[in-house]
Amino acid sequence: MSKFEWVLRGRCHKFGDDVPHAGGIVPAHFVTARETDPEVLKPHLFEEIRSGFSTRCRPGDIVVAGKRFGMGPKVPGYIAMRALGLGLVCESMPVQAYRAALGEGLPVLAPNPGILDLCEDGDLLEVDFATGLFVNQTRGTSFGLAPMPAILRDLVARGGTAGWLSHWWQHEGDPASA
After folding, report:
1. What is the pTM of this model?
2. Which long-range contacts (CB under 8 A, 24 or more apart) does 40-45 make?
């Protein structure tokens, strides 16, 4: 397994409450078409609510969102976020959305009530997803958030569910032969 970078440093991209997956994170037609190609999805990330987002973000940037982020058990937006090298910190997200994001290998810190009060769009952030340290370098402040649990870090470090299962299969063998 390659070394996963748990500390992301980049600009804050702040979103409010109730950002849906379909029609918010990515256009709905990518969800209904079940698109999974990162190269197809990346240019369309947040395009319906923040035009040109994919051209302004850089690897290491952090999406900071409010309550109920990514409603729905969809994955195309998380595929695009991971492919762009982004991280996600939000006040809350439905369990299906959380599971989908982790399953695609996206580093996520949730739930974090009040996170929107700690930063503004464009602030320079440093977030350690392994320890939960959230540093707003623009404001000169730092906060301790709940870190990702070790078992979920292992899942994300292996690229999500498919990578984790591939590793398990290679090391544990065929469960039918046990």
Report:
1. 0.91
2. 41/76, 41/77, 41/79, 41/80, 41/83, 42/80, 42/83, 42/84, 44/80, 45/77, 45/80, 45/81, 45/84
List, for residues 138-177, the tens digit of each pLDDT value.
999 999 999 999 999 988 998 887 877 787 788 876 666 5
Residue that has been written with the tokens 């591939």 in this structure:
166
- Separation between Cα atoms, residue 15 and residue 10, nearest integer Å: 16
Query: In a 3-state reduction of DSSP, which class is residue 151?
Result: helix
Choose which CATH entry (3.30.70.580, 3.10.180.10, 3.20.19.10, 3.90.470.20) describes domain 7-170: 3.20.19.10
